[in-house]
Structures are given as structure tokens and as C-alpha cells.
Amino acid sequence: MKVETFSGRKIETNIADRSFEPYNGAKKYSGSSKVISFEKALQECKIKDGMTLSFHHQLRNGDFVVNLILDAISNMGVKDLRIAQTAFFDVHEPVIEHIKNGVVTRIEGSCNGPVGDYCCKNPLEQPVILRSHGGRWAAVETGELHPNIAFIAASAADIRGNATGLIGSSAFGNIAYSGVDAVKADNVVIVTDNIVDYPCYFRDIYEGLVDYVVEVDKIGDPNKIVSGSLKVTDDSMKLSIARNCVDLMDAAGIVKEGMIFQAGAGGISLAAIKYLGELLNERGIAAGSSTGGLTKYIVDMYHSGCLKQINTCQCFDMESVKFASKHPEFLSTIGEYSNPLAKGRNIDRLSTVVLGATEVDTSFNVNVNTHSDGRMLHGIGGHQDVSTAANLSIMAVPVFRKTNPIVREKVTTISTPGDVVDAIVTNEGIAINPNRKDLIEKIKGKIEIVPIEELKNIAYSETGEPNKPNLGEEIVGITKFMDGTVLDNIYRVLE
Amino acid sequence: MKVETFSGRKIETNIADRSFEPYNGAKKYSGSSKVISFEKALQECKIKDGMTLSFHHQLRNGDFVVNLILDAISNMGVKDLRIAQTAFFDVHEPVIEHIKNGVVTRIEGSCNGPVGDYCCKNPLEQPVILRSHGGRWAAVETGELHPNIAFIAASAADIRGNATGLIGSSAFGNIAYSGVDAVKADNVVIVTDNIVDYPCYFRDIYEGLVDYVVEVDKIGDPNKIVSGSLKVTDDSMKLSIARNCVDLMDAAGIVKEGMIFQAGAGGISLAAIKYLGELLNERGIAAGSSTGGLTKYIVDMYHSGCLKQINTCQCFDMESVKFASKHPEFLSTIGEYSNPLAKGRNIDRLSTVVLGATEVDTSFNVNVNTHSDGRMLHGIGGHQDVSTAANLSIMAVPVFRKTNPIVREKVTTISTPGDVVDAIVTNEGIAINPNRKDLIEKIKGKIEIVPIEELKNIAYSETGEPNKPNLGEEIVGITKFMDGTVLDNIYRVLE
């Protein structure tokens, strides 16, 4: 049957068993500004009790945005919010007041510092849910964690919402964590202190995903991106652990042209990377790439020629921020880095990773979230993601710290399950996961392998049995594996 | 109820009215190579009769990939395929054989050249569906056009599928058209002639979306990216049209600091851009950005300082390819450029665009697909997308060509509807869409406005009434508007 379109054309709408709609007119696009005030943005997003708000943590301890937004929302009288940050730091201590006032009742996101400490002593309505970087990305992708409003801090944005973290005085690196929130959230609000000429380039979030742009005085203090701990250890015991890590890599045949590595930001991991760089340079070979959080130590390796490429999604210091803005070709999103739902991830070809832990146990389980007294103080990060992916995942820890045994019978909380952990490298020797018969075979005769039980015994002989934490029955937190299953419960700390 | 996880931990699975799954073990990731042979890839993708295959056209007339793949599939005896290319060129003439043999029975994608010519004379099982760049992206996003296998030509890729068009001897610009295919297709196959060290940087398609990587001798000849027409016209009549375009822009108050413009790749459009650049330089001001296909003329403007940024998603010559690989910060996907489903697009802030046409009519409708004899010879491109978006969309055409009136009562095929076209600029004067009262008001007294009917009359007085094309009853093609509705039917050309 022929029908007339808006243009007056008579067209057939049923052809070869398919039916079509006739053209019905168009309006010209406007491309108008999306910049509005904070209050107006919250109104337009129809903010209300019970909603889920998401944030990224890339300004780390220098972030102003979470506090700014929660204060504004609190002033509007909105309650019962679920906060889906990618991590909290010391700077987010004011969140505790919002918990006390009923503004925040649920948290699903990594908790570093005072908020975690508060929540493990004062249970929220629901347990805090701790997901790895990749696990969180997947949970937002599947809808398990659905943000109603994604607030995305950007160091530069244009009036249409193209946004980046790479340029401007508050630059913090590419916006790597928020891509999936931008796609999935009902509303997306860019929060920036730097409106630039359209179109903002180096855009990590593009205008097609953005509803509103809000300008604030300052999104944060990038000088506080760097944490106090970000330096190579000068403790000789820790340096010996770092040396052991590199010896193990070498014995395993991993130190070779094109190797891909990652290191955590702890002092031992950084020292191990330094030693690895020295070894590569000594042999005149180059690693193919690094992955994960970027530090000046990795940038130095790149410049020294022993590292061909960098693949990063997070900057841990200002040197890295500067490097990232000059090398957009090296930047990834967390989705690219570690989304377990993808057909491949940047970390899947990791030769080795050196990570820290608060505790490890004789089943090779690793705790990075709680202290041995049960307090929830540390971020979960990408620890389990990279451990699962790396051909040789190394946990670098002293067997005990002060009076607390680090290698122990059972970790207080499982953050990374023992079945994906390959080696525990300590100041008293190296234990290899008995599942990794191939690895044991490879290093036999080159590295002395110490049974994990023996490392535990050495620890206990120095410290005695671990103190039993004073915990209640209430579950205050959950650690999830990246596939969405539960690794462990975290119990209330009694004071 | 407490259950034991794979790690032996007893956990509660029902907490605060939510139920959770216990951890069930993990396997280490392998990160193995995805490189397999062509035949194996097709087998693994379970290629079979009736499937839809997608391709991008960014190697343009230098593309080898479509022919290579269709030959291979044809040899396997597979039939009844739907081809969802983003465009065909002369080089794709061998597709006609596959149509004759029943390998290809349906085509949904832009048809430049011999395949279009064949299909308008020899109807396929279903009409060819012509969608604009943005309209195609949206159709794949919604599932209206679902590729079973996306074959993505890449000038460099690593063994895990990270892929780009920016580096290597077959570089053609960033892979801008295939992003949505990569997300939505059942299987994604990267076809490359250049396997690079992992991880491939400048990646436009990332490994998380890729199933297989196939290495071939040569994906194409990038020297044939440039079409013969890509030069500024030296015809004085056409130069006067180009001059008229810039005069109109200036009268409309558009030639100012920060303006955003686009131009088609035809000789008149390129000349208009050249004049625009001269005017900007003369006044010491700079355009904010260009959008759309990149040519050396726009690169020259950037280098001359009268254009602050470039925003592009397609390279039309080798100078642009070289420029793009040095300026990844300026590159967009078609989704960013013109996806009508997005909350904003790069083109939405276009001040003006200068485009060509095969015909225009007194209702301001534009034909870019068929000749006046009905033959389907030209791509639909982003013509309607940018016309809808630009504040001042200009069609630059002579009133007639040889004996054929270009300005006419009714275009043979509507590619872009008249309600989004603002001005028709010819060698005999400028017509403004009467809907644009604001524009008419602005230019009054500065530019003589000629009624569109008068331009038609001038044409007819030179050429006589248009020849009636010799068309049959069968519908061989459909032009769609970017929202999925049908603008027009294309009828069989009788020989």
C-alpha cells in the first residue's frame, strides 16, 4: 500500500515481506549547551530517596566531588541513597556524617580509610559490597549495580559534555572507570572546573552519553593523587623480598623480551619493578608492556628503553599524569583492562604481577581489605583481576609485621582466592601454590621452594598465634569475585 | 543459610533481603593468540546460508577485504548472504558475480558505483537499503540491522585483536565505522596485513570485542583511498558557486571565531572551504573545528592557524591519513559523529556545511544517490545527518549539467528531505528554504535571494523539461532517514 511521506512522496511501505514506516518529518538539531547549575541538574535528574549515585575515584585522596555532591543532596533533604563509588579515601570522611543522617544507607564500592572503618563498626542497612575493578565494571554492565545518576569528575569538558581527565589544572589521567556508568546510568552529569572550547579533545567520555555539565570551583587537588606510600622501600628486609620476586620471575623464565608486567603501588612492589628494570637493562632486553596503575618508576623504565609500551588506566602520581597526557595511545579504560565479560582484556597476557597484601594464608588466599583486627580499611582494587590473569601472580609480604603474623592459617577476609595465586614471596623464602606443578618444575634447582606451612610456622614462632579479632555476628561487608559470586563475609568489629 | 565456598569459607548467602551466590572457583586466564586462518575463522563463526556480514569502507576504492572474503565464502558453497557494508566502490564490482551466483541476495549499505548500477537494473530479493552514516550506526545499535559476522579491516592488529587503521603500510585513518558492529555482531573477525607487538596501540577496536584475527597479504591499496574528484575545482562557474556559498555564510553571520564547519569532498565544496579559509585568515580569526571527512585542504587550514581543531572520522587522502596518525586526539567514531540515538553528536554544533547533490528540487529535497536516469550510483554518506544538524546547510550545485536540469520540480530520489535543507546555492543565485524565516531576515539586503522556482525555470529554459527516466514497477532500493523511516523508493531501471 502506498502512503504519502512528510515530503509528499508516495512510497510503498510493504516490500518483500518487510514493512516500513514512512518519513514523518525532522527537526533541525540545536546542539545547545548542557551547562546548568548543580541544583538544576539534580532537579532535572529527578533525584529522590533510594537512588544509586556513582562516582569515580581517580582524584584519589584529592577528590572534592563526592563530598560536594553529597552535601548538596543532603541539603535538598534526599535520603536513603546507595553510593556506587569506585573507591573512598581519607578525604571522604565527611560521608560518615551523611551515613549518620540517613542520607547514605548503602555503599557498593571500594572503601579505603575512615568510611570503611566506620561501616565495619556501624553496620549499614545492607553490607558494603566490595568488587574488584573488573567486577564492578561487569556489575554495572549487567545491571546488577545500576546507577541512577553517574557524577563524573572531569578536569576539562566542553558545554556539550565531551570530557577528559587529561588536560587542565586538575588533570588526573584519562577517565577510565566511568565509561560503563556513562553508558548505563539513567542520567550522566559531568562535574568539571574547566569548561574548554568545543570540542574538548582527548575526550574519555563523549557528549552522546552526557545529560548535563556542572561547573564547580575545583574538582579536587591533584597533588593529593599521590599517596604517602608511593616510594620504593628502603627497608633492607623489604628490599630482600623485592629481590626474591625478581629472582623468582627469572627462574620461571619470565624475564625476557616482550614480557608484560604489573606492580602494585606498595613499597616492595615498586622495589621489585626497579630491580626488574635494572635486570632488563643489564641484559639489553625490553619488556613489551606494563599494565595497571602508572607510577614514575614505570615511566622511568619506559624512558630508559627497557619497556616498549605502557598500558595504563590510572595515574598514581603527577609524573604519570603528565606522561599520560602526552601518550593517549597508551591509555585504556577499566573495561579494556579487566572486564571479565569481555572476549579479552589487557591483563590477560600478563607475564607476572607483584602485589602486596595485609595477610596471606596457607591456602594461598589473600586479604587486602581488612586488617587482622577485622577493620575494613583498604581498597580491593584490581588485585583479584590481575592475580587471575597473570601467568605468575606474586604476593610479596613479610612473614610477620610487628606482633602480627602475615602468613597465617586463615586470612581474616578473602579478597583474592588462593586458587589464582601462584607464589608468596617473603623475607623467609618463597612458597609456590602446589596447583602450579608446571611452575614448580620450571624453577626446581634454581629457587628454593619453602612450604607455605613453614612460612606460617616461622611467623607464629615470632609472634605467637594470631590474635582473635573481636567480631560480632552482623555481616557488614561482602567481598565478591569478579564473576559476581561471594568470596567472603566481613563481620562487625566490636569496640 | 551458611554455605561453603570453593575456598572452604563458610559464608552467609542471604543478607538483608538479598541473596548471593558463593564463590565457585576460577581458572587462570590464558590470553592466548586469536590468530587463525581464514577458513578456520569462518568455520568457528559457523558461517551459513542466510547470514548477515558487515564490512567498513574506509579503504574506499582501495579495499581488498570485501572481495577476498566473499570469494572465500563463495568457495565454501555458502549462499543467500545479506551484506551490510558501510559503502561499495568501483573496486567491489566482483560482488556482482556473487549476486548472480546467489551468494549475495540482499544488500543494506551505501552503493557507490557498479554494484549499485547492477542492483537497480537487476532487483535483489529485497530492495537495497540505503542508510546514512548515523542511520546505519543506529540501525545496528537497535538490532534493526544485526550482523552475524563483522569483518573489520585493520592496518595493524595484535594477536589478541586490538586493532587500528592508523599505523602500518595500509593505514587509512582510525577505524570509525565498525565500533557498533564490533559490539553487536555475534562474531568479530579482524582482518589485517600487519600483526604488531602486543598490545597494538592507537587501538580503535579493542580485544574485548574480538573473536578472531586473520592475517592476509594485503588488506588494500591506500593510494586508492583518494578519489579522482578530490581537488578544488578550476571551473570558473563552479568557483563562483563556491564564492556564493561563503558570501552566504558571511551574510548569515556565521563566519566568526569558533565557527564549526564541514564540507563534502566535491570540487565546489572544497573550493568553498578554501575561500572560507582565506576569509578567516584575512580577518585574523579562527574556526573552532571542522567535522566529517578529512582532506588535505582542511589539514592546510589547521596548519595555517585559521582552524583550531579538527574532528574527523574518515580520511579522504593520504595527507589526512598521515595527519590522523599524529593527532589521535582529533579522531571520532561515527557513533560520536552522527548517531541519532545519542544524547549529543559532534555534528550538532555545526555552524554550516557545504554539500553537493545530483539533483535538488523546489521542495528543497536533495538527491545524492541516483542519477536523473534512475541509476543508483552514489553513496548516501552523512548527507542527511549533517544537513539536519547544521545551522546552515548549503547545497552547492549548478542549475543544470549538460542537458540535465539539476534544480527541478521533483528529485528522482529523496536522499535528504527538504525540511532540513536551508539553502541551495547555484551559479544563478541563492535560494533559501522559506521555513528559515530567521535566516532570510538575517541576510536580507546583503544577499539577493532567488525563489527556488526561478532557479528551476532557468534550468528548464536551458535544458527543457527533465527527461523521464525509463523505470519499471519493481522497487530495487529504499532510502531511509536516520530515524529508520523511509524517505523514498528507488525503482528498477529498464534497459
Looking at this protein, list some descriptive labels.
homodimer, 2 domains, 7-stranded mixed sheet, 22% strand, 495 residues, Glutaconate Coenzyme A-transferase, alpha/beta
Per DSSP, the total helix count of chain A is 14
Helix content of chain A: 25-40%
| Widest beta sheet: strand line-up of chain A | 18-17-16-19-22-26-27
- Shape by Cα distribution of chain A: globular
The computed structural class of chain A is alpha/beta
Give the oligomer, counting copies of the same chain as homo and different chains as hetero: homodimer
How many DSSP E strands of chain A? 29
Largest sheet of chain A: 7 strands, mixed
Question: Tell me, what is the CATH class of the largest domain in chain A?
Answer: Alpha Beta
Proportion of β residues of chain A?
A: 15-25%
Largest inter-chain contact set: A-B, 83 and 83 residues
Unreliable stretches of chain A (pLDDT < 50, length at least 5) are none
Describe this structure in words.
The structure is a homodimer of 495-residue chains. The first copy, chain A, is an alpha/beta fold. Chain A has two domains: 38-108 and 145-224, Glutaconate Coenzyme A-transferase, CATH 3.40.1080; 236-469, 3-Layer(aba) Sandwich (Glutaconate Coenzyme A-transferase), CATH 3.40.1080. Chain A is 26% helix and 22% strand. Chain A is built from 14 helices and 29 strands. A seven-stranded mixed sheet of chain A has the order 18-17-16-19-22-26-27, sandwiched between helices. In chain A, helix 7 crosses helix 8 and helix 8 (267-283) packs parallel to helix 9 (296-304). The longest helix of chain A is centred in the middle third of the chain and has 17 residues, at 267-283. Chain A is globular, with a radius of gyration of 25 Å. The mean pLDDT of chain A is 96. The interface between A and B is large, with 83 and 83 residues.
